[in-house]
């Protein structure tokens, strides 16, 4: 996507689940931007000498409005970095599940350990489904670590892909909480020479619970009336959807991914306010 100015028009699907009464006193490690702020480019981690070696922590916490947040964080505190690889590279990714398990008096012992098992899936990529690679049945319980050793085929198509948890029963909740990030397989300029040298902006659109959806005392017509969005973790909240700002000084190559769970996005490109 290129252009001098752009805006997104979004139509949303609906799905809401929650856990009323679960709150954590500590500040969430999964920090988000302010409504109406300029979007920031995610930190980029690029392979070197055919290897990208990454360490992630899977973390969680409650936002000030009570919604649950999840994130992948590196040792230096970077959240959901963009992984940049080339065909033929090797990706070594150690994932440690450091999620905080909230106490829920309705569960015997208050232990939700089974609900906080996680893993990683590399969405859209052409990878081996064998254990240790893109194997969606890998189970990483809280307090445990697992190292993915992934061979990226030499003929892998270039493009934008994304990573997220794929542990069944926890996928939507993790995605609503923000646990996703982008992957770029380099080589686009070989197919599209006109993109060579352009400044690149990567954009991840995520959907998330609204605070009302966490309150089961509300009728569904009130609690389930929409989903909030975020763009690179800048909130774009229902129903007004205050835009996140993208300041462009020249023509750019935009790499845009829907890295969420349920929202249906109808994207429209506007030039100076005109479709």
Main sheet properties: 5 strands, mixed
How large is the share of residues in beta strands? 25-35%
What level of helicity do the residues show?
Answer: under 10%
Question: Care to count the β-strands?
Answer: 13
The string of secondary-structure elements, in order, is EEEEEEEEHEHEHEEE
What is the global morphology? globular
Q: Layout of helices and strands, plus pairs?
A:
Elements: E1 44-46, E2 51-62, E3 68-73, E4 82-85, E5 90-97, E6 121-123, E7 145-151, E8 159-164, H1 171-176, E9 181-185, H2 188-191, E10 200-208, H3 220-223, E11 228-231, E12 234-236, E13 253-258
Parallel strand pairs: 1-4, 2-5, 4-9, 10-13
Antiparallel strand pairs: 2-3, 5-7, 6-8, 8-9, 10-11, 11-12
Tell me about this structure.
With 275 residues, this protein is mostly beta strands. It is built from three helices and 13 strands. The chain has helices at 171-176, 188-191, 220-223; strands spanning 44-46, 51-62, 68-73, 82-85, 90-97, 121-123, 145-151, 159-164, 181-185, 200-208, 228-231, 234-236, 253-258. The chain has a five-stranded mixed β-sheet with strand order 1-4-9-8-6. The protein has a four-stranded mixed β-sheet with strand order 3-2-5-7. It starts with 43 loop residues before the first strand and ends in a 17-residue tail after the last strand.
Task: Please outline what is shown here.
The protein has 3 helices and 13 strands. It has helices at 171-176, 188-191, 220-223, and strands spanning 44-46, 51-62, 68-73, 82-85, 90-97, 121-123, 145-151, 159-164, 181-185, 200-208, 228-231, 234-236, 253-258.
């Amino acid at each position: 996507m290129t252009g001098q100015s752009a805006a997104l028009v979004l139509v949303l699907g609906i799905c809401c689940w929650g856990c009323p009464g679960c709150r954590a006193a500590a500040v969430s490690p999964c920090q988000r931007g302010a409504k109406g702020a300029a979007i920031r480019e995610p930190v980029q981690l690029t392979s070197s000498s055919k290897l990208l070696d990454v360490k992630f922590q899977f973390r969680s916490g409650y936002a000030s409005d009570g919604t649950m947040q999840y994130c992948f964080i590196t040792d230096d505190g970077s959240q959901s970095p963009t992984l940049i690889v080339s065909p033929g590279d090797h990706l070594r990714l150690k994932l440690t599940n450091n999620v905080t398990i909230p106490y829920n008096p309705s569960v015997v012992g208050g232990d939700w350990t089974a609900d906080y098992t996680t893993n990683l899936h590399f969405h859209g990529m052409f990878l081996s489904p064998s254990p240790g690679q893109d194997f969606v049945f890998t189970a990483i319980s809280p307090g445990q670590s697992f190292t993915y050793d992934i061979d990226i085929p030499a003929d892998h198509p270039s493009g934008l892909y994304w990573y997220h948890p794929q542990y069944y029963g926890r996928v939507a909740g993790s995605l609503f909480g923000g646990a996703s990030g982008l992957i770029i397989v380099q080589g686009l300029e070989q197919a599209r020479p006109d993109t060579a040298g352009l400044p690149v902006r990567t954009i991840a659109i995520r959907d998330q619970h609204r605070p009302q959806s966490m309150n089961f005392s509300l009728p569904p017509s009130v609690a389930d009336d929409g989903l909030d969005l975020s763009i690179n973790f800048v909130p774009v909240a229902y129903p007004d959807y205050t835009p996140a700002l993208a300041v462009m000084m020249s023509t750019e190559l935009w790499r845009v991914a829907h890295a969420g769970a349920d929202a249906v996005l109808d994207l429209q490109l506007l030039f100076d306010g005109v479709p």
